[in-house]
Amino acid sequence: MKRILVVDDNEDSRELVKKILKKHDYEIIEAVDGEEAIAKAIAYRPDLILMDISIPKIDGYEATRRLKERADFKDIPIIAFTAHAMRGDQEKALQAGCDGYISKPINVRELPNQIKIYLKDK
Questions:
Q1: Within 10 Å of residue 112's Cβ, how many Cβ atoms?
Q2: CATH code at 15?
Q3: Distance of alpha carbon 12 from the chain centroid
């Protein structure tokens, strides 16, 4: 079973993602801020991280940078998962080290397929 860390300070958003992905046999770990995201990523070694950008304590960009600096996280996909959909936001996420970008609101039908694409090599 693939393990996904869902980082989002919005409980409704986390619950929706959790509900969708559990139907597809993913194990879900949750974090509500950047510090918790880093700690849980290190503790649980997820196969993929969905990283909200606007989160408390440490934003998603910085949390991604810190994880990607670690040799053991170079190959773990971190996907920016955000309502930031302005021009340049996707590029900023990729520059921070994100491997992909999924904008909110999510497409409930497409999310599992988007996740599968990022996990294809795992």
A1: 13
A2: 3.40.50.2300
A3: 16
Range of the domain at 46: 3-119
Per-residue model confidence (pLDDT) at position 88: 83
**Do the beta carbons of residue 111 and residue 17 sit within 8 Å?**
yes
Per the structure, the count of domains in the chain is: 1
Torsion angles phi and psi, residue 102, rounded to 5: -125, 120
**Residue 21's closest CA among 75, 81, 91?**
81
Whether 53 contacts 61, CB under 8 Å? yes
Rounded alpha-carbon distances, angstroms, from residue 20 to 26, 63, 69, 99? 9, 24, 30, 21
pLDDT digit string, tens, across residues 36-88: 999 999 999 999 999 999 999 999 999 999 999 999 999 999 999 888 667 78
